[in-house]
Amino acid sequence: MTVKRYFINLYEYEFWANNKILTYMESDTPSKNVIDIFSHMVADMKPWVMLLNKESVSDNIECLPSWNIQQCREALEDVSARINGLIYSFESTDFENKLSSAGRNGQEFVNTVIEVLTQIVTHSQHHRGQIEMLIKDESDLNLPTTYMSYLRNKNRSHNKKIEPTLKNARPI
User: Fold this and answer.
1) Phi then psi dihedrals of residue 79, to 5 deg
2) pTM value?
3) Domain 3-151, CATH class in plain words
């Protein structure tokens, strides 16, 4: 598997997991803590995506916003589309490219594209784990968003025989 294919697969998981949490948030009444953690998780993707896009990253990007669920949806759709577009546009050699950025304290950091893409996913999974625990405590609902949950869900979907319907029928 190429590095590009690996990240395409990993970000398919990322989008699935984030949408699973967001769908729950839209269909139930999540606590402010759930919304705040999700808002932070999505907002914190923006400076990393800007870095990947070689855009100037401002010090005043809000990574702890107080968004409502609709704002979470809009921000997630925007950042997901940007990440997806970047990954598909990268050549195999681009993943080793070095990116330079300044931390909040002004210290200069250099990371590869691989490291930045990995940071986004691991940071998200950390916060999805927190959200899962809050949801379990608040509603007794088990909402797994692990990578293995994704793969098993995906494999179950692929192994199902699809009966022809008007929606999926193809002319012979």
Assistant:
1) -70, -35
2) 0.87
3) mainly alpha
Helices 69-89, 113-139: inter-axial angle, 10-degree rounding: 150
Contact present, 108 and 100 (Cβ < 8 Å): yes
pLDDT in tens, 66-82: 999 999 999 999 999 99
Name the token pair of 120. Answer: 């986004």
Q: How far apart are CA 34 and CA 32, in angstroms?
A: 5
Q: How far apart are CA 130 and CA 112, in angstroms?
A: 27
- E-strand ranges in 2-139 read 98-102, 108-112
Contact 33, 123 (CB under 8 A): no
Domain range annotation of the chain:
3-151
Q: Which amino acid is at 115?
A: E
The pair of structure tokens assigned to 126 is 């950390």
Write the pLDDT tens digit of every residue in 78-104: 999 999 999 999 999 999 999 998 877
In sequence order, the β-bridge partners of residue 109 are 101
In this structure, what token pair is assigned to residue 7? 């990240």
Token pair for 33: 């803590």
Phi, psi of 78 (to 5 degrees): -65, -50
